[in-house]
Design brief:
The protein is an alpha/beta fold and about 650 residues long. Helix content is about 45%, strand content about 20%. It has 21 helices and 26 strands. The strands form 7 sheets. Strands 1, 2, 3, 4, 8, 13 and 14 form a 7-stranded parallel beta sheet that branches. The protein has a 5-stranded antiparallel beta sheet with strand order 20-19-18-21-24. α1 links the parallel β2 and β3. α11 packs across α12 and α13 packs antiparallel against α17.
């Protein structure tokens, strides 16, 4: 057992969930995983502080709020409530739920931003690049995948705005040396190699850390119009919550920081192992001890997506099969370093085989036999045989395995080790045949010993399974009328008290009828798909209003009507079309990135609206003398046209 763990601080966090939408069960895996680790560490005697929460600022929130006709704060209040409810439904034991709209958090974020600016680690410039609104990320042309956002696969738009930047490049060498000198800082090894080889060693670009194109964020208090961008705002939650302050941090901060483990999804490892460490280095603060980037939970072989209609929500699944069954499935089905898979077939199979047959049946028949043969009274183990020692050793070996697996984040292996102990107990029943022993009065001492060993081994199962299935652990111990549930009690085999009485044998898990469950699932999924489709259709049509301009600014834009005389694809480009426009002033060439939406011949003869007074620019070797106006809708794009009788060169006003 861990003798030096008693009272030792242990700080563990999840990533904070983005409040754009209610999280699906793939998102819920992380909170259950982290909760299981936190519960286990508490069992060992650590002074655990377990934090989760919500990330609530950004352009995407503005869009969803606008779509629902409410303020951003009203919108995030609703979604943050849903996220917290799911954490509670899943019986997670978090100590603090932070929201990035908390006043305390926002004030410290402003202080952090100002400190970094004043010491020269943040500077003012401008950003020009390709922007993905759903991901709220800028990309270069070379980073795009098939011309689209490499993270979500959606369209990107050219954007330019004034912004502040964090000097990542200044700390590149220091970060690289730190990671290479600490083998377990980024875990697993594959994530570490990815960060070093794909991002850090090729050279870090300075990071955009403020925005002016939307308002829903923490204001930069020394430069009106700028809001602190997600990286500094959201990542700082890990220290603002425990009392970090550039002007003097609290005793709580000094006690718990650096964090022992950040538990995050593999898709945000870059932010937590590059941006966050560099922020801390710039602040002069210690780095977290470990960052574990866990894999994704897929629906079958696909990433869960509301638009695909394959989303499962944790609270709904809890209603169908119970909270501990959901926790068990999430933890047992996710491998250590590769994506896990959730399907209703495997949910039913796991429930019926592992929970109902292996675990539930073991507890039920052991207690039932003790009631049947000894009136519920637990017998003294007075007739031991060599086989009993094998069972005892299996119990002790399981304790060691669970400890090793959890400390290495091999959670599915830890869960499997406990279920394997239950399987060994079932095998012990088959080997000792209690029903045969019961027929011979001379064998009753042996029968009493067998049942005692089973009850004690089941107690090991109940204690070890507590971090994963806390209610099930309590239910097993309650049926045994056993109060000894401490981790320290697993040092010896024999904590069950002879002479005490077990309770009534009540099935812990009743087998699932697949037909009944599938009927309930079908109704639930139909309802969810309809709701999600309606929400997405509204939200996708809404673009945030751009920064306000004056009438004088608008008057500078010269928009004209022109007729498309010829149109062709630009060589060496999949996105560009070249237009020959009759503008009523001698003609001009315009290049537009709409090739994926139109065939060139479709546009010949159309009267289009174009901006006539843009400075010429060369695109793939072709000089473009304007911009053709288009409108986005339902993920597509449509060129704005006017009536055929409009005179070429007519000015819009």
């Amino acid at each position: 057992m861990c003798k030096n763990c008693k009272g030792k601080p242990y700080y563990i966090t999840t990533a904070i969930a983005y409040t754009s939408r209610k999280p699906h069960i793939g998102n819920s895996y992380e909170i259950v995983l982290t909760d299981a680790i936190a519960r286990y560490k508490r069992m060992l005697g650590y002074d655990v502080f377990f934090q989760t929460g919500t990330d609530e600022h950004g352009q995407k929130i503005e869009m969803y709020a606008q779509a629902e006709g409410c303020t951003p704060k009203e919108y995030v209040d609703k979604v943050a409530g849903e996220i917290r409810d799911i954490c509670d439904v899943l019986n997670t034991s978090y100590d603090y739920f932070i929201r990035t709209t908390d006043e305390k958090h926002e004030k410290i974020v402003q202080k952090i931003f100002k400190k970094l600016y004043e010491q020269g680690d943040i500077y003012k410039g401008s950003y020009e690049g390709l922007y993905c609104t759903p991901c709220e990320s800028f990309w270069t042309e070379s980073q795009l995948k098939d011309g689209k956002c490499p993270d979500c696969g959606r369209e990107v738009k050219a954007a330019k705005e004034e912004a502040y930047f964090l000097k990542l490049s200044k700390y590149q060498k220091q970060l690289e040396e730190y990671i290479e000198s600490r083998p377990d800082f980024i875990y697993p090894e594959s994530r570490k190699k990815e960060m070093l080889n794909n991002f850090i060693k090729p050279g870090l670009q300075d990071l955009c850390v403020s925005r002016t194109s939307f308002k829903w964020g923490v204001p930069v208090d020394f430069d009106e119009g700028h809001v602190v961008y997600v990286w500094i705002d959201a990542l700082s939650n890990y220290i603002t919550s425990i009392g970090y302050d550039p002007d003097g941090s609290s005793e709580m901060y000094k006690k718990y920081w650096p964090a022992d483990a950040h538990i995050i999804g593999k898709d945000i490892v870059r932010f937590h192992t590059i941006y966050w460490p560099i922020m801390l280095m710039a602040l002069g603060e210690p780095l977290p001890k470990q960052v574990y980037g866990h894999p994704w939970l897929l629906f079958g072989e696909d990433k869960m997506s509301k638009s695909r209609g394959n989303v499962i929500y944790a609270d709904e699944l809890v209603k169908l099969i119970g909270v501990d069954a959901v926790r068990y499935y999430l933890l047992s089905e996710m491998p250590f370093a590769s994506d896990g898979s959730i399907t209703y077939d495997t949910i039913i199979e796991r429930f019926n085989s592992d929970l109902a047959n292996t675990l539930g049946n073991l507890v039920n028949r052991t207690i039932a036999m003790n009631n049947k043969y000894f009136g519920g009274v637990i017998q003294e183990p007075s007739a031991s045989e060599p086989l009993d020692e094998e069972l005892k050793q299996f119990c002790f070996d399981t304790v060691k395995k669970v400890d090793e697996y959890i400390n290495a984040f091999h959670m599915s292996d830890a869960v499997e080790a406990v279920i394997n102990l239950a399987k060994r107990c079932n095998k012990y029943i088959d080997e000792t045949t209690p029903w045969v022993l019961a027929k011979d009065e001379a064998s009753l001492p042996r029968l009493g010993t067998v049942l005692y060993n089973l009850l004690e081994a089941i107690r090991f199962v109940a204690v070890l399974i507590a971090p994963f299935m806390p209610d099930t652990s309590k239910a097993i111990l309650a049926q045994m009328n056993c109060e000894e549930s401490s981790y320290d009690s697993l040092e010896n085999f024999g904590a069950v008290k002879a002479g005490a009485k077990v309770g009534e044998a009540v099935p812990i898990f009743a087998r699932i009828d697949p037909k009944v469950l599938y009927a309930e699932i079908e109704e639930m999924q139909k309802k969810n798909a309809e709701n999600e489709k309606a929400i997405e259709e509204v939200a996708d049509k809404v673009e945030p209003v751009a920064e306000a301009i004056s009438i004088d600014d608008f008057a500078k834009i010269d928009m004209r009507v022109g007729e498309v005389k010829a149109c062709e694809k630009v060589k060496k480009s999949k996105k560009l079309l070249k237009f020959d426009i009759d503008d009523g002033m001698g003609g001009r060439t315009i290049v537009s990135g709409i090739a994926q939406y139109y065939e060139p011949e479709e546009l010949v003869g159309k009267k289009v609206v174009f901006v006539a007074n843009l400075k010429p620019v060369k695109l793939c070797g072709v000089e473009s003398q304007g911009m053709i106006l288009s409108a986005e809708f339902d993920g597509g794009l449509q060129v704005i046209t006017v009536d055929d009788n409009k005179i070429n060169g007519s000015k819009l006003c």
